[in-house]
Specification:
The protein is mainly alpha-helical. It folds into 5 domains: 75 residues, no CATH class; 78 residues; 80 residues, no CATH class; 114 residues, no CATH class; 95 residues. Helix content is 53%, strand content 4%. It has 26 helices and 4 strands. β3 and β4 form a beta hairpin. The longest helix has 17 residues.
């Protein structure tokens, strides 16, 4: 879905075509341009800007976005002309909405959730105006968990934010209530909200709920009765949309077992790549699955013991069987093709295979020299440790490369302790901030103590280098510790703001 520029509700279409002309600047001077309806040009038969013609003033916002994404040169459109048309369209879209005949929309359904307190609403308004705006996600997450809704006048601005930030959409589905859904039905830029949970009665949710409702229902059923959830999926699998099929497969990760293997094996033949990939990722976690056995057979030929080290030789090709098992043939930019295939095979091989095959425990394997393809093999093991949630391998690999994704596999107390060790042993830099950014809130006591000490030391010696760490700590430390952060006023202020914010939402 593409969206127009932000500007609040309602999202306009274009002014009515009234035959009037106005002027626009062109590279060659000034030429008259008639107003026209948004949408494909008359007689074009397509929503795309015609090749060989400039981006015409009748082009809709979607057409202009399409041309920009494909490339103005590939559509034979002068870039300056494309930008001019986009600017014109922005003015039109902000000017107003074309009136249409017909009955007014039905009123919004009655609200079922209580409003947030006046103090919480006031704080939200201040955050939307720019005060501590980085904490908005936490406010929305907490309000959604408390089952309260925001005042109606704040909904348009929140929905505008959600149009550009997918991470807050699920929270918006809860806190904007019935009025939010009503507005989303009137504005295509906000239609994403209709996919989020709407809290349909449990007896009707699987047949009548939104995609978000159905995913939440399936996740709940999977938690209570894994077999019943899988059987529900199997009954209507072919009728589901590709997007829902991919999302539903990932939900099977909860309570995953060999009883799910036949269903996931069949999903490897799905037309949608995302579905096949999700199924392959789950089958990797089942060492006795057919996919795991096929990957083990491939890996045993590609990675072998070589004296005290390890030898790797990537596949010569990527055949249809490998692609069915989740190996993508085309590598990301900058990566060697055969190395990409090798990495994926290693990533989808059960980690329990390697100690017996190589005759070494995981910590020795993680330290062993591999040769020309060392980077690809290590990346494969790292991906496998994350997919399989294997703490032993994550611990061994983290010693050699401190990746946030590996840290996330470890138990919370160990994660906090190991992150604290890194904070104490190195100066503040972008890599440290990135690593800490992957540790969820609230940070454990070991990490909190180490970070606070590092901030104090850095603000004394290099105050210009502490800003981003202070901001991140303000978001992740326990807000109840705001009094302990008095030596760093900016940090103390953020923690106090969060402390009061959560108190208002309690």
């Amino acid at each position: 879905m593409t969206t127009g520029p932000s500007g609040g509700f309602p999202r306009p279409v274009t002014p009515p075509s009234d035959g009037s002309d106005r002027s626009r600047r062109t590279p060659g001077g000034v030429a008259p341009v008639p107003y026209a309806e948004a949408g494909p040009s008359a007689g074009s038969g397509t929503g795309a800007v015609r090749r060989g013609a400039a981006a015409e003033p009748t082009a809709s916002w979607e057409e202009l976005v399409s041309t920009a994404l494909v490339g103005a040169d590939r559509r034979a459109v002068p870039p300056e002309s494309l930008l001019e048309r986009a600017a014109e369209q922005v003015v039109r879209m902000r000017a107003g909405r074309r009136l249409s005949r017909g009955a007014p929309p039905a009123p919004a359904a009655a609200e079922t959730l209580p409003l947030v307190s006046a103090a919480a609403a006031d704080r939200l308004a201040r955050m939307l105006a720019g005060e501590q705006s980085r904490l908005l996600t936490e406010w929305l997450e907490t309000a959604a968990a408390r089952r309260v809704r925001v005042p109606a006048e704040m909904i348009p601005e929140l929905l505008d934010l959600g149009a550009g930030d997918r991470s807050i959409r699920a929270h918006l589905g809860a806190v904007t209530g019935a009025r939010g859904r009503w507005l989303a039905g009137l504005n295509s830029a906000w239609a994403y909200l209709l996919e989020e949970p709407a809290h349909v009665p449990p007896g009707e949710v699987w047949e009548l709920g939104t995609s978000g409702d159905r995913r939440a229902f399936l996740a709940g059923l999977r938690c209570r009765d894994p077999a019943a959830a899988r059987e529900l999926l199997e009954r209507g699998w072919n009728a589901e949309t590709p997007e829902d099929r991919a999302a539903f497969v990932t939900i099977l990760a909860d309570g995953l077992g060999m009883a799910d293997e036949p269903f996931l094996e069949a999903a490897l033949d799905d037309r949608r790549r995302e579905v096949r990939q999700a199924a392959a990722d789950l089958l990797t976690r089942l060492p006795r699955s057919r996919l795991a056995r096929r990957m083990t057979a491939r890996a045993s030929r590609l990675v072998t013991r070589n004296g005290t080290g390890i030898r790797a030789e990537p596949p010569e090709g990527c055949d249809a069987a490998m692609e069915r098992d989740g190996v993508r043939a085309r590598p990301p930019a900058g990566m060697r093709t055969r190395g990409w295939w090798l990495q994926q095979v290693v990533a989808h091989t059960p980690l329990s295979f390697w100690p017996g095959h190589l005759g070494m425990p995981p910590d020795e394997i993680a330290r062993a020299r591999i040769g020309d393809w060392e980077r690809e093999v290590r990346m494969g093991w790292t991906r496998a440790a994350i997919l399989q949630r294997d703490t032993t391998w994550a611990r061994a690999l983290f010693v050699t490369e401190q990746l946030t994704d590996l840290l996330a596999v470890l138990p919370p107390e160990e994660r906090s302790r190991r992150a604290a060790e890194l904070v104490r042993s190195r100066p503040v830099d972008g890599q440290m901030v990135m690593m800490l950014g992957g540790v969820p809130r609230p940070w454990g006591r070991h990490l909190a103590k180490a970070v606070l000490k590092k901030i104090v030391e850095t603000t004394r010696a290099q105050p210009w280098n502490a800003g981003e760490l202070i901001r991140l700590a303000g978001e992740r430390l326990d807000p109840a510790t705001h009094e302990q952060a008095g030596e760093v006023p900016e940090l103390a202020a953020t923690l106090r703001f969060r402390f009061e914010m959560l108190k208002e939402l309690a």
